[in-house]
Amino acid sequence: MKIEKVIHDELNKLIQVKTSDNYTVESVYYRNTLCISSQVGCPVRCTFCASGMYGLKRNLSYEEIINQYSLATSKGYSITNIAFAGIGEPLLNWENTKKAFWLFKQKNLKISFYTTGFPLKNFEELLALPHNGITLSIHAVTEEKRKKLIPKSANLEDLLKILENHIKPLSNRKKKLYSLAYLLIKNTNDSQEELENLANIAKKLNIPISLLKYNPIEDLPYQTTSDKDYEKAFLFLKEKGIRVTLSTRYRTRKIGGCGTLMINRLKKEKGGCP
Asked: pTM to 2 decimals?
């Protein structure tokens, strides 16, 4: 693997890494954190996300996962945190992800995961790891709508039950390691009723919500919510007694923001992805 290109803005560094078979995957460096990819493409095919637009090409080996960190440090980036939040669903490349996890632990790095929770068996294993945080992406409060947004996903009720059973005996301090991600998309999952149900789920689990603002993706049919409506949804959840955070400025960038990572970006710009 080698670094093909680094794209900078005032906050993020989008690192494009070429594999030996000529794919380019992306990781993002910001504020001592490296957001890494676990797959070339993504089989989950979230309908709002650029990462899965071309499906899954292949899994990354554990060496390729680790090498994203090694290449970034070779550029002089100071990294204390690893987030499995780049391209791919880490649970669908679980053996390589686990091996990379333990190697990162040996380097005394703090490791967090962003996951759709599929498949359930691997999600249960993930919960048991000595991680530094798990954010479960739900993005909908009904099974029907979640399947439209996340075509390859576990049953929402089963997923939340597993999370509830794991969290219930934990101390309040350890419960802070868990959160729900909800990507607010205009006229899709932002109704008052849906936000009410989201608040009820978070209350039952006693964990916070990461309320994300949708980053528009070219060629995808979704629209971002206005700043006013985004703030309104945030305040509604706060009034319900929910601990809720908004997208940071790092997550709303054109480069490296939530849902904007993709494979072979340079080839796409030149006229097509393999």
From this structure: 0.91
